[in-house]
Batch of 2 targets.
Target 1
Amino acid sequence: MTHQEIRQKYLDYFKEAHHVEVPPASLVPDNDPSVLFTVAGMQQFKDYYQHPQNAPAPRIVTIQPCIRTIDIDEVGDDTHNTVFEMYGHFSFGYTGQDTPDGPYFKKQALTMAWDFLTNVLAIDKNRIRATYFGGDEKRPTDTESKELLQSLDGLSRIEGYGNENFWGPVGDEGPCGPNVEFYIDDVEVWNSVFNEYYKDRDGNYTKAEYRGVDMGGGLERLAAAIQGKPTVYDSDLLSPYITLVRENSNNYNERHGRIVTDHVKAALFLISDGVRPGNKTREYILRRLIRRAVRAGQTIGFTKYGQLMESFASMYGQYYETIKNNYQEAITVFDAEQTKFLKTLDSGTTQLERIITASDNGEISAEQAFKLFDTFGFPIELTSELAAEKNWTVDLTGFQELFNKHKDMSRAGMEKIFQGGLADHNPQTVAHHTAHHLLLASLRHILGGHVVQRGSNVTSERLRIDVSHPEKITEEQLKMAEDLVNQKIAEDLPVISETMDRDKALASGALAEFGTKYPKEVTVYSIIEQDGSVFSRELCGGPHVMSTGELGRFEILKEEGSSAGVRRIRARVVPRTSSIS
Ligand code: SER
């Protein structure tokens, strides 16, 4: 059975069972700053577990590309990929009632899983085993799932586990629950999470008002299992590309071939979703993937990255619009980064040779190795390899210490970004940011307190805000909001920031974006009315203008639905010509 057939059978089966197919989300989540990338199919639906009324349907099916950077160092083994496609089905809003087309929970989910695996895909029952949540000190055993598994015809291997069988939340807060995993020949291919808890920021679990299902599995693994292949790289989703790499290498080995294949594919997906190589967070991960691919390529004598990407694109372009539209750009971006890296490698090699000829102490110090790594992007293995050729050693322990210190620092840097800071501090971006606060407050004023932020994006060109509101915002309401923002700009109100305890800030009525994880201590920005009352107060990393009078004229550009119950507004501040330098 080909991967095309598996895809189709999965979608057809769940559509037949009244699921609505929803297109995949971007790999860069735009409403969840607590994670770098989309790591699971459920992520775009996270909010629906608590607010099922916002879901476009109670039953959804998707195939969602995911990136798991935690697995980068595992890539090259038999089962891990950086990017993979997750097939998933979801149910929202279950309150105890099974209906043929409404929300469902454990019974229907497990019955469908077994039917699909053993009847539709016709996998031999003896190859399958299942695991369930056996409970721990905080959470009880999932006896319901255990009994349901015991009732499945022909499933003989069932085991209970602890924390491994409890999934979520994504980020530090959110829906989560016990899960059931199905394995084929000991490779996990199916994970049904039963979201029945909500975990709060302080780590407490409470029973959720609504229960739901979040099932996900890796298409590459399932294809390998069905096709009787020993590794994900042998499935028809990856083997043609592995072959392309092998045939174009002059010193091929499997591990490096896999790294090239996996990383080039991940780079194609990331660049197509708008990520560019750089030195921060997502950008850095892309850079690391490209560099790692190029290094692995050097080891096996492979250079045809453009051809490999194009070949991936001709297949994935059939399923993903972003790839169809952007793969040529991806090839260009990859190529530019490769050129840059090769130059870096050259200067690093020169540098290393200089160190070696300048003294005869026989060891590259930790500082020297770290400088090569940090400034020249020189991987430590390469330093060791080249040093060894000259009979030199490297202070690897010292290097590791410096490296760990650096890792902690960059992690701290990432956390700072997630506190809501802007990507750039261009004056026009800052102006849009303050206008964003004014707009949210104005919308709440005009439409009501149910309006909360669901997502945002601020650039120097425009601002975009997603807010909860059940229906289209009328022309008249938009005009009122626009006028109110302009009035607050004309009143030249002060924008003040204070650092506060998070819970106190929330208790004081400061607005926070739904689903966002905030640290214990937060910055709160307030816009104060002429009479001293608060017009707007939000948890926010800033920066902002000092007073609203610095903004030019505000205008709303567009209003549209973004998902059920969520409206998206684009607006901008027309810069004052006199203040542009
Ligand atoms: N969220 C779960 C996972 O990622 C199931 O979809 O494994």
Note: The first helix runs from residue 3 to 16.
Target 2
Amino acid sequence: MNDKKKTMLSGIQPSGHLCIGNYLGAIKNWVRLQNDYDGIFIVVDLHAITVRQKPAELRKRCLSFAAQYLACGIDPNESIIFIQSHVPAHAELAWTLNTLAHMGELSRMTQYKDKIKKHQANINVGLFAYPVLMASDILLYQSDLVPVGEDQKQHLELSRELAERFNNAYSPTFKVPEAFIMKQSAGARIRSLQDPTKKMSKSDENPNNYIALLDDPDTILKKFKRAVTDSETEIKYDENRHGVANLLTLYSSLTDSSLSDAEQHFQGIGYAQLKKQVADVTIETLVPIQKRYDELMSEKTELEKILKNGAEEARYRARKTLSKVYRKIGLVGGF
Ligand code: TRP
């Protein structure tokens, strides 16, 4: 871990099932960039509990998500990978930042507004303060770059704002992070298979809407066969023909080819073939990932060791920032 490299940090909530959208939109890019950056990849379990979780499932899912990051190619010798709750400083800095964040700015968060509509029965303070915890994740490690999807742009803006607010109120302490929005070309935006006007979501209640990284080949083929397209016949990339555009995007991302090459490839071919071939390249990508995943999960010593080392390194780095913060705001240290 070279000090001169810039720090790149990102995380995914352990809810639902990691899907091909997460892979192509995020994890594949983390893997691609991890040699050039000092990478920090977190399973953000403290974020996940802002929505009620089943304890036994959450426990399993955290390990499973970490194993899937690794199986996708996150290299623990290059990057730090850990579970958020193993590093107490996340919650500690979040509390401190809560005293800097304004009620007004948090009430304006689009995701918060969407979430309180969805979770009427459990509009808890954590849901409200969620973006502050995310700022804590980012600022603790003096991150330079935060690869996120479009939907997290507002949260990242808040992280920048809180960093600046603290730096101005006390003295320069936090690096002000840059968003690294995954665009179509770098990180594909993958859409739901049954309702391609929506983004593919790992927490969708209908599993036919997503391809989970752990779906077996038969399931993958079945899901693609059922994917919604349209009543036209020609395979062309047209933003407005969401279903076909989505399949072409999947094909081009999975084969690392351009959209126009993908279009070319499918010229004169029907939708059935398109679906079959997208399924084939998906299976080709996922089978080795699943194989590695099974190894990691069947004998957990290696996985546990990686997560233990990751947490240790993260705790060390996070503590440095937190101590500075505590000192600057006037908390008595040294005990
Ligand atoms: N809020 C992010 C999401 O829902 C997940 C997240 C939590 C995150 N902490 C982060 C992403 C820090 C990037 C950096 O997608």
Note: Strands lie at 7-12, 38-43, 80-83, 145-148, 178-181.
